[in-house]
Amino acid sequence: MIREAASQGAVLLRNEGGMLPFTPADKVAVFGRCQIDYYKSGTGSGGSIHVPFSVNLADGFETLRRENFPMPEIDGAVLGAYREWLSSHPFDNGDGGWASEPWHQEEMPVSDGMARDAASRSTKAVFVVGRTAGEDKDNKPEPGSYYLTETERSSIASLCRAFPAVAVVMNVSNVIDTSWIDDDEFLGKIKAVLYSWQGGMQGGQACADILCGKATPSGRLTDTIAYSLDDYPSTRNFGSGDDEIYAEDIFVGYRHFVTFAPEKVMFPFGFGLSYTTFSQEVRGSSCRGGEISVTVEVRNTGNVRGADVVQVYAECPQGLLGKSAKSLCAFAKTKELGPGERETVEISFPMRSIASYDDSGVSGFPHSFVLERGTYRFFLGTDCLHLTPISLAFKVPGTTAVELLSEACAPEIPFRRVRPGASSDGGTFELSFEDVPVRTTDIARRISAGIPEELSRAGRSIAFGDVVSGKATAEELVAEFSDEELLTIVRGEGMMSRKVTPGIASAFGGISESLHSRGIPAVGCADGPSGIRMDNDEEATLIPIGTLLACTWNVPLVEELYGFVGGEMKEKGVDVLLGPGCNIHRSPLNGRNFEYFSEDPLVSGKMAAAVCRGLSRSGALATVKHFALNNQESHRRTENSVVSERALREIYLRPFEIAVKEGNARAVMSAYNSVNGRKAASNYELCTSILKKEWGFAGIVMTDWWAAMNDCVSGGVATGRLLSQMIRAGNDVYMVVPNDSADRGGFGDDMEKSMAEGTLTRAEIQRCASAIIRFVSWTNAAKKPLRPLRDEIVVEDALDSAPEGARTFSLGEVAEGDALLGDMYFVAPEDARYDFSGEYVKDGKDTLSQSVSNVFINGRPCGSFECRSTGGIVVNALAAQVAMKKGVYKVRLVHTKPGITVMSLTMNADKFSPITMGLFE
Length: 921
Ligand code: BGC
What we know:
This is Glycoside hydrolase family 3 domain protein. InterPro entries: Cellulose_deg_GH3, Fn3-like, GH, Glyco_hydro_3_AS, Glyco_hydro_3_C, Glyco_hydro_3_C_sf, Glyco_hydro_3_N, Glyco_hydro_3_N_sf. The chain is α/β, with parallel strands linked by helices. Among the domains are: 2-231, Rossmann fold, CATH 3.40.50.1700; 278-405, Immunoglobulins (Immunoglobulin-like); 441-523 and 707-785, no CATH class; 793-909, Jelly Rolls. The strands form 12 sheets. A 6-stranded mixed sheet has the order 1-6-5-4-2-3. The chain has a 6-stranded mixed sheet with strand order 23-24-25-26-28-31.
């Protein structure tokens, strides 16, 4: 299924002169190191899944041959030359540390001589361009990132001089500069371009399948590829650590290009070629009860099997608000059709989905979704620029509100935003600007009006099981909680908590003795989104990146795929996946675009909803992240996104809204950044007014890891201690405090003090606690017998003695220095439980970076030093607690993610004294 998905999301952008697919008559030489070092995913939390195997492009060809697929001849000499060169130029992972992997790898220079030599044996050449990207580091407008390196350019130019035809494979995480394919130095020889993205464990296989014609490409772009980076409207306001003005407003991605500058588009949103051809005929359309339906007959008019995508675009009257000249309003993918085969596709969508949010009141309906008076037209498109009108137009005689709402999260900093000006003949508009409406409401009043009453006790004894069985409500259970229990339950712990599946990002819920004794299980959350990340080297399946999945335009396939991931989660005892990510691709430079789906909110939302539904098939739960506007990785913790209410509603919040309403999302992760001056994690209007009240979201909001909050009313300075503001805003869980510290004050946050001072009420914490209990009752953890608070780790296979000359350590002795680098031998004097604790440090200012040192005892992962960077401060931590029989044990520290320096390790008789570390800000 991964192979299938990875091939369905690959987008063929050019295919001239029968270049692809290769036939058995072809002789093909494949260049570029990434045919071997094929990127399977991006980096950071979303790309750190430990895979059992992965298939690169070279192996992909081999597999096809073994499957007896009719294959071209692949030039073994070229492949051999790459293998040899790679033996002295190994993959540079930047030492494997957090955000340290470079975004490209040094290439073997291909000289004219080498190219000519290969061309004497082969007739076609392929060059694989590889790029990765990831968390905490954006792409840069420089060679090796957004642009080709000199070596890549000169190598491809050599191939173009030697071969009659060259295909380029883009094994990339983000859109990168593609305009070069038409540069003079390539002599018009680049006949095929395939964006194969990063396809997970089977990415190279899927790419080989497409190149050789085992699979017919059916992917379509979910982002615009413009000629120049400067053509993207966000480029001017991207990447600073301060106020980031979203001046382009709703004109993000193709909305900008179709409205103002179609000539700047190299490959449009929605575009993608196939090896076959299709016809699409509208067989019927209607507009009834606010719902528009279109029936389209798709026919494969070519000679090979293939699938097509039906895209419906709307053209709304410009009215007083101004609109995108066209916007996608529905889509569907056909099944694979044989030559001559037809499929009738029926798609429908509510009028509400093409309504506009009026944030100024100019339509007469302030802060509401409106359909402005005028004629609405619809089109079938092979992409956003190639459209055929559907004979369905309807007139709205007078502007109507389809949903009456109220102001929320409006900007406070005035700025000018883009809007369409005068129209030209071709249906485009001049760029014009207007003042953005700013906040008029009193946030303090809104918050105090929403403060709940304290819960009263039911007067009977209630256990968590009663909530699960429906005999009691979450509120009734929470009413029984002591203050300490209330404060504990809103703190999640991690990373690598010993109370859940080892190696994952967090545990929350029943993580203290007292909450656990009420029958509340600890719930385990793992990254996400492309599989289960376990940082103790435990393996899991890696599926393709979000961008590739979106490019399949195949919602049922994505649901199916996540059904599989959910099954694996259930098997491994992971309750919650920290994904999907559905931030908008505002700029091609965002390092984390690979985790997200598209520049379009509808595609993003439909895909996110499919992920939620897929996971829930086996009871696993999704976390839709990062709410909201985490659209850049540089300065992600300090950046303040300054955005109009309209762009927020129509573009950036829309995917989350769809995931909640159509995917029944039960968890949302707030972002690190601020949105209009309030940190996302203490943003009352985002978390409560919009998400919970307006959308009816009944689940939990968790913070991103070690997030900071500021004052929900006045904004200002942010710190990770302001949990009072988080609670007040309706962000239910703080992720994460150090393991075993949730019932001991966590990081030393301000909740207790605020309660005492009356600036936080018990009732507000109860409200969050109730949401958490309800959520826990929905998890797979609640459906199983309660497991012990900490699984006892037992290592029984004691060695008789340490090898000759090895250093041994006995109770209380400290292993440090060189001893920590290799195998250490610890002597357990009797059968007992032992603590392994020590000191560690992680340098560097980025306190969000993650590094892990695992403690292996007799080859078995038994615990780890926590994952978070300490910002240079030496920290004491309990790494593992293990029951051992009397004897000698081999202990080894393994840096699954380097960066940490462990300075000492001591084995003591079990004292279980968790050590709370400070908050590094
Ligand atoms: C990321 C989240 C991730 C979390 C846990 C953070 O750095 O922003 O997306 O889920 O770490 O790994």
